[in-house]
Design brief:
59% of the residues lie in helices and 7% in strands. The chain has 13 helices and 6 strands.
Length: 270
């Protein structure tokens, strides 16, 4: 990993709650934009924060906070989902998301969550399949919004429809699909969006780079290490695959994952 990757090492070392998610997403984005000055992008976030405080600083409860967020991010600044070019990699690239005011559900959710938290409003991205949404005031009666639709408030039936659509005809909502994601889980999901698209486009070098970033941001997650090992093995890089699996074994504590890694290592070594 080069010196550019060193700029995100801190994301894997700090406590999860100390990660400022919208700034972290920009830091990840700079890896694909060498030499780009982040200051103008951070200024946009600060301006949005000031506007949000001006019109919603006294908002109480998830409903009022949702209206303020939607008015500023979706209304004043025009951030909305890119329905025409949904699968374009730039929709998960936070620098380009801010440039274009277009993005994926996960990248736009990061903006909403980050700005809400700047005002001290509890906000969490939800682990809904295929379409990340945001819960405001999650410890109370959560108010769920869809950043992809400009911050539209979702009724329980609308949320259920999103989950069912993403899960497909054989799927059905489960509790895990409504769990709040940690900061690292959300950043990992952002990177996975890019990695899976790169692999679908047969750009395996790019896919490996993105999985490497996941191992830096979330070393204890396992997903990045496993996928990196898989791609290296497919490329005939046995030593690289073993190295990825060994690193996974050193960082992951889940027993089932560790047993899977040990079995994979045994298979590669024989």
């Amino acid at each position: 990993m080069g010196s550019m990757m060193d700029t995100i090492v801190h994301l894997g070392l700090v406590e999860d709650e100390d990660i400022q998610i919208e700034v972290a997403a920009l830091e990840l984005s700079t890896l694909d934009h060498p030499g780009v000055d982040l200051a103008p992008y951070l200024m946009v976030l600060s301006e949005m924060e000031e506007r949000l405080a001006a019109i919603g600083g006294d908002a109480v409860g998830g409903t009022e906070q949702a209206h303020a967020l939607s008015r500023v991010i979706g209304g004043d600044y025009g951030f909305v989902g890119d329905r025409d070019g949904y699968d374009a990699p730039i929709n998960a690239d936070m620098i380009r998301v801010i440039d274009r005011r277009r993005g994926l559900p996960v990248s736009l959710s990061i903006l909403y969550v980050g700005l809400a938290r700047r005002l001290g409003w509890p906000a969490e991205p939800l682990n809904t399949p295929g379409h990340v949404v945001v819960a405001l005031a999650p410890s109370d009666v959560p108010h769920v919004i869809d950043p992809f639709s400009g911050g539209q408030s979702l009724t329980p039936d609308q949320l259920l429809a999103i989950i069912r659509h993403a899960a497909g005809p054989a799927g059905f909502p489960s509790e895990i699909q409504l769990e709040a994601m940690t900061n690292r889980m959300t950043l990992t999901r952002l990177l996975l969006n890019q990695a899976t698209r790169a692999e679908a486009a047969k750009d395996l070098v790019r896919a490996r780079t993105l999985y490497e970033r996941i191992t830096v941001v979330a070393p204890a997650d396992g997903k990045g290490w496993w996928e990196l090992a898989r791609l290296r093995l497919a490329d005939g890089d046995l030593a690289g695959a073993r190295s990825s699996l060994t690193s996974m074994l050193e960082t992951v504590r889940d027993r089932e994952q560790r047993e899977l890694v040990i079995a994979a290592l045994d298979a590669i070594q024989t």
